[in-house]
């Protein structure tokens, strides 16, 4: 959190009768310095204005009416936010909005999003346009256009209307106001400032009459004053049905869908009565426009160099890898980071019910979308498509989330037939996941011996953004009476003590090395760690696995 925001209250007559005026300079700006430098907010309460200087390039010594380098926002005379600015801990722009975060409690920050409005005239115009928007856009022909296209069309209509009515308004202002009005016209428009924010991770709505809250990458869990009433619920349900083309009714009261909004992938999970007792429930998970690479995950302490080296070697060897952890622990983030590190010449087939994989430049990808398990009238079965992969000749299969007993059986049937796969599955540890496979999903020990590696992720404190790899576990396996069997698990990395343990002689790494004529895989792991530590800033993580194959096999890699 940014604790270095400076809030300076200006005199009603600005510099004319201000005791802090020093010739052409402002003493409040030249003397109130906090290191490291943070934003300055100049407050003109009587004029309804906030002036913001982020001081990214050079310090400002003069107020905005004498110098550049300020962003001015009109929030209205008498706005309650003026009384709470001392609790402001972060402020930054999000396209046509500005986001403000306030100290609220030990567990939450409070977030307010405001449209970026420069003057009282713009403020009045925006309110007028919002009231008249239905009349202005009423001539639009009803179509089955997707949301992005509809919003673009509405924005253009509003922009043209402003140009006809007030031609003096410049293009930038006109576009900004038109975007805000277009957003307000949509049933989920009040959420758009949150969804546009690249630092938003997940948005939650527990039911009509409750306030929406969300998880923020830096602020943790944040509260808002946004809510939906019972009267708005039917419009939300209609929107979800239209965009997903799936059932959402009493006989099918839950649904999971993908939504591409503002070039951002969103995963929506919705439930309604009788399943959701308190009315409509909604979760929106937002994918980053620029996904994390292995390098990013090392930098933000999600994984260490040792963990990264183990995962890269396992990936290069096409291990069967399962990523496990509780909800919102970052399983898909790790999966996508590993996917982006695969050699570009690999042919990869993806089978997902919600598309969370990324389209990668110059990679060979076949991406298939199946019906979610919530859909009662399913036509495209994930289990069937997993089995069909045997005839699609993949070098690697990315399976997304394995959710049911049927999925697990299809997974182990496919890898028994020779497929190599990467997937996620809910669980709190490798031991817990193995127990679930055996006890709940009926997977026998012979099939379990086909899995190679289990990565466990952890989110130590609910509501906070920090996540990390808790442990990496290899599967121990052997042959009894000519049949492969599961012998147990061996933890090879643990974050709590930041320890990398020895590989088991009957573990996946050693067996894979032995099968390829290599005595000890430890050497290549240690070499990879050194390479990552010494050259992290210069390594192309998208091609490092291709380099591992230079000697004919990753286990034979020599720097």
Structure described in brief:
29% of the residues lie in helices and 25% in strands.
Q: Could you walk me through the main structural features you see in this protein, from its secondary elements to its overall organization?
A:
The protein is an alpha/beta fold and 559 residues long. It folds into 4 domains: 6-115, no CATH class; 120-186; 192-286, Beta-Lactamase (2-Layer Sandwich); 294-556, Rossmann fold (3-Layer(aba) Sandwich), CATH 3.40.50. 29% of the residues lie in helices and 25% in strands. It has 16 helices and 24 strands. It has helices spanning 27-31, 120-136, 147-165, 171-184, 192-196, 233-244, 294-299, 305-316, 331-341, 382-388, 405-416, 430-440, 445-448, 508-515, 522-535, 544-548, and strands at 6-9, 21-22, 25-26, 40-44, 49-53, 71-74, 88-94, 97-103, 109-115, 200-205, 213-216, 220-223, 254-261, 264-271, 281-286, 321-325, 347-352, 364-369, 396-401, 421-426, 453-458, 468-480, 483-494, 499-500. The strands form 4 sheets. A 9-stranded mixed β-sheet has the order 7-8-9-12-11-10-15-14-13. A 9-stranded mixed β-sheet has the order 18-17-19-20-16-21-22-23-24, with helices on both faces. Helix 3 crosses helix 4 (171-184). The radius of gyration is 28 Å and the shape is globular. The two termini are 41 Å apart. The model has no long low-confidence stretch (mean pLDDT 89).
Keywords:
9-stranded mixed sheet, 16 helices, 24 strands, 559 residues
Mean pLDDT: 89
Number of beta-strand segments = 24
Give a quick account of the main beta sheet: strands, pairing sense, barrel closure: 9 strands, mixed
Name given to the CATH architecture of the largest domain: 3-Layer(aba) Sandwich
> What is the CATH T-level topology of the largest domain?
Rossmann fold
Radius of gyration from the alpha-carbon trace, in angstroms = 28 Å
Oligomer: single chain
Question: Strands across the major sheet, in which order?
Answer: 7-8-9-12-11-10-15-14-13
Number of helices: 16
Would you identify the regions where 5 or more consecutive residues have pLDDT less than 50?
A: none
The fraction of residues assigned to DSSP E strands is 25-35%
Helix share, percent = 25-40%
What's the CATH H-level homologous superfamily of the largest domain?
P-loop containing nucleotide triphosphate hydrolases
The first-to-last residue Cα distance is 41 Å
